[in-house]
Amino acid sequence: MSDHSEIFSLTGLEISQGLAEGKFSSEEVTQAFIRRIKEVDEKVHAFLSYDEDDMLEQAKSSDNRRSTGQSLGPLDGVPVCLKDVISAKGQPLTAASKILENYRSPYDATVTVKLKQAGAVVGGRLNLDEFAMGSSTENSAYGPTRNPWDLERVPGGSSGGSSAAVAARETPLTLGSDTGGSIRQPASLCGVVGMKPTYGRVSRYGLAAFASSLDQIGPFSQTVEDAAMLLETISGHDPLDSTSYPASVPGYLNALKGKLQPCKLGLPQEFFGEGMDDEVRKAIDQAIAWYKEQGYEMVEISLPTTDLSVPVYYVIATAEASSNLARYDGIRYTSRSERSENAIDVYSKTRGEGFGEEVKRRCILGAYGLSSGYYDAYYLRAQKTRTLIRNDFEKAFQEVDAILTPTSPTPAFKFGEKSEDPISMYLSDIYTISTNLAGLPGISVPCGFSENGLPIGMQLIGQAFEEEKLLAIAHAYDRELQYGRKQPNL
Amino acid sequence: MTGNYSTAVNNLTFDTDMEYEAVIGLEVHVQLDTNSKMFTRVGTGFGKPPNPLTNPVVLGLPGALPVMNREAIEKSIKVGLLLNCKIAEVCKWDRKNYFYPDMPKNYQISQFDQPICEGGEVEIEMPGESPSEIGPHRTVQLTRIHLEEDVGKLTHYETDSLVDYNRAGCPLLEIVSEPDLFSPEEVFAYLTSLRNSLVSAEISDCDMEKGQLRCDANISVRPVGSTTLGTKVEIKNLNTISGVKNGVEYEIRRQTKVIKEGGTIIQETRRWNPEQKYTTPMRTKEMAHDYRYFPDPDLMPVKIDSEWVDRIKVEIPEKPFDKQRRYMEEMNLPYSSTSALCGDRPLCEFFEEAAKLCKVPQKIANWVVNDLLRELAQAGKEGEESRNLQNCPVTPQNLAELINLIEDGVVSNNVAKELFPEMFTSGKSAKSLVQEKGLEMKSDGDEIEGLCAQAISDDPDAAEKFRGGKEGAINALKGSVMKATRGLANPKVVDEVLRRLLSQ
Fold this sequence. Notes:
The structure holds two protein chains of two kinds. By secondary structure, chain A is α/β, with parallel strands linked by helices. In chain A, about 40% of the residues lie in helices and about 10% in strands. Classes of the chains: A alpha/beta, B alpha+beta. The interface of A and B includes residues 86, 93, 209, 212 and 243 of A.
């Protein structure tokens, strides 16, 4: 730790401690990460942009605060980078889309405000699938992010930049957004921790919306402890978001300090059937075995409606997206299509040229599901099924404290392997989607590697607003096994 | 084409009432008078330069989210109570999706299947046989009232259009009537009554010039006696009260002519052109939007419990027509006074306060309606805000005192009439002005007797004529007595004394 060249390998909490002990300054930390970005991001392409001057300025302010004894807390001076759908005042907000190419947000998202209030060095705009639509980051208009463990493979998505940046040690902490697995799946594929909080736990104000009833911002890190620290900072009721939950936030980091009494974990039989890669199965079995050794009880449970999750998700998410993305019309943002002759033309040509294939596919799908004559058959029915899925989980949680599943059916796949086949791409979120539909918190924790060195993640799903317990269960494992501390060779 | 055709229709005499009748439903949009916009804390206002009343939410920037304004919900509930509607138990929001630059999100937050109010009615009064006679009353049924956000204002130029989002996101109430109006006069009566109710309950100023009240009309025509509805046509851009009346009148004539000539009405939306005075097609039913309504996932439904409604109920003012009936029945006011008073709640409050201090409310009403309104209007013309009762120099107490001075025989009616404008400009009380100027009425018998005798001897001709039976001749004698007293002699005493002296 005394060697400054390895600052980039440290976790958020280690950096926080080092800053507190005066081992290094925030400016040195920030510089170390900027050097690291310059060194490896050409290969990884996790970043769409970063504002070096702005980051160093924030770091210096943090050092000034610390030198006058006015440190703002554990995150003060620690770099945190954001998925490029989370607004930061004066910074670009592209959503990895051509349609927002030259847009800069004139305001801070609530999570950005909270990070700044905690003293974090907020910088770096991370790559994603355009408007968070995808599972591989191949849908970015600015080129894909590569998996730091194997540059020929995808980092997962849509928050692929956020997971890859942590895996490549370009930043200790990042934020992503999760609509159907967009935090957990890339965390799993990149070997880092990624958490989707309960819907309503973190304000969505300032998050460019994909599907409003499913989107939730959450942290990426090397360890569960770091995730707890970051989640604690960004959580809480926000009067600017009507869907945010009006309750106080427990001290997540403190909750990890004691030793957890072993409890009951549910294994949904539907998740352990066909379609799961053998190496994934092996890693999950080992994680289950570990928990059993610690005295946890494994209970087989059933979530019978979850096989409808993928279709339900694709009706609801696309419907909301078709409306949320209507504002990107060439009137306010981006340059209008040169070829337009009238108003309708401006809309259709600008959107035709400005959106990528997947975004267009989902907008069309969503608009169709809401059309008069189809609404009842698609959107309304999907909402009713969503209630059934939620009920399944509620029933399961009468028996168990958390549910353990794989995060993704396979380790990272190769570029182009699924991009031509939307359905097989959609199925890579099969274990994560139902959590969003039920609004529950879920965390992906690294639990091993495949034979050819690709990370594998397990998912733990908790009860609504019980992140405390969920983090504690995840931390019990992560503290011992620490797969997220393993670093790829770049 | 359209122009020629329209002129021809305009030239038709309005002879349709015998064979055909119109059936009209109105959609009235009312901007609620709230401190901030419907879903964000930006202020509302009119007459500002374009676009300062905006923020990320109003502009629909990526990531911005709406948060409901409780004041707007309360005002809507108030309207519902005022118009006897059923108030919804849950306030739910839907998105109405369509592409148009007056809405930066390209969807409008509105209410689709669960409006905040359902049913309800508006009492209307048709003109009486003369302005001083009460006309027939009836109630017009409402379908629903829902709340939504207003859109921005587009101004089109030759090659460009400019947009002002100051108005965008303001709370807008849409009051939809049943097809329960049958003439342009009823439409006018409906709008007037609705406007009076909403203004008196402080829901909105309902100023059509400022776009605070806007109106679309659904019109169909059918043979008299038919019970089915004809094909309806929606008329937009009826932006003034006269525009509504003229537009509806025109459209009824147009449809009647088409039907009489054997044509058929197509279901469409037409635009009223106030300058040329005709309607032109905007879009047909086939071109109608599919708005793809769905519940807005950014907003939680809000429960409206009975305690909330009860708290608002307390604030509901007396309805203008109820007030009018009370004035006529309990205070014996003439209809003409009540009709001038009852559309104006502050004026009524002024009146009632003055009436409490005086034995003759009829006189108070008369003075309020004639003298006070005249002075206020005059002041308005001279640059001060007209009808501003808040800073009116004459208080209700002042007016009551003046009327009491007349009643008690301290001043004559004529003197009082002259005094009032002075009270208005100086702010002085009636009593102090009367004292200051020595304007008490002279009722002293001796003094008046002397003046009357003098008048008779000065004008023996008039005295002779009166004695010969010419009743009117006495006025010349009275005039000279009044002149001699600068108008202060008590006319009743003068009349008595003159008659006594002339009969001697």
